[in-house]
């Protein structure tokens, strides 16, 4: 009986060693990264961040380190890692969206809703984004910081469709009131920092319903009774 047990134990041990050998074999070495994003990104630039992971064992991939390396790119806001055995890593990328620009040192600083500076352009450059003015701000580590009043507007801008956001020329905060200027048309009085999401939804409806008309002025201070003045 003891000999049978020894044989069984030796067999189990052999299977265990074979299993370990298979786990750490080149079969699971990472050979390819596949990037997925909504828009075209510079994949070559991203690959500089993942070169060191080639040849690592996919089973023991340090996903946190990989994500952190990719998140160092300003254009990337979030990263999701998906493993495809035996040797492929799928990287799902959510990019930051440019929502507005501000004038600083004779430059247009284009930034995301969380204040990451995405580009700098000459003042004469055409940018299909609204200018932010009248808000206090400061810079730190290639990022622009705003008060909560500006953050409320920027978060709304981040959720708007590009074609809707492109209709705005400038937004100003003055005398505790938001004033918006349209690219085609006049101004919009948004009032105070109250129900801004509702106000932008109403504004979108007004613009869609008056595409053929020339708008001179819109007052949304009281959302139940919006005022529209046509030219």
Topology:
Blueprint: H1 2-23, E1 32-36, H2 43-50, H3 63-70, E2 76-84, E3 88-95, E4 98-104, E5 107-112, E6 117-122, E7 131-133, E8 138-139, E9 144-145, H4 148-159, H5 162-165, E10 168-174, E11 177-182, E12 187-191, H6 196-209, E13 215-219, E14 227-230
Parallel strand pairs: 1-3, 7-10, 12-13
Antiparallel strand pairs: 2-3, 4-5, 5-6, 8-9, 10-11, 11-12, 13-14
Report strand %: 25-35%
Rg from alpha-carbon coordinates: 27 Å
Shape annotation: elongated
Strand order, largest beta sheet: 7-10-11-12-13-14
Low-confidence stretches: none
User: Could you give the distance between the termini?
Assistant: 103 Å
What order do the SSEs take from the amino end to the carboxyl end, as H and E? HEHHEEEEEEEEHHEEEHEE
Using the 3D structure, state the CATH architecture of the largest domain.
3-Layer(aba) Sandwich
Give helix % range: 25-40%
On the 0 to 100 scale, the average pLDDT is 89
Total number of distinct structural domains? 2
Give me the number of helical elements. Answer: 6
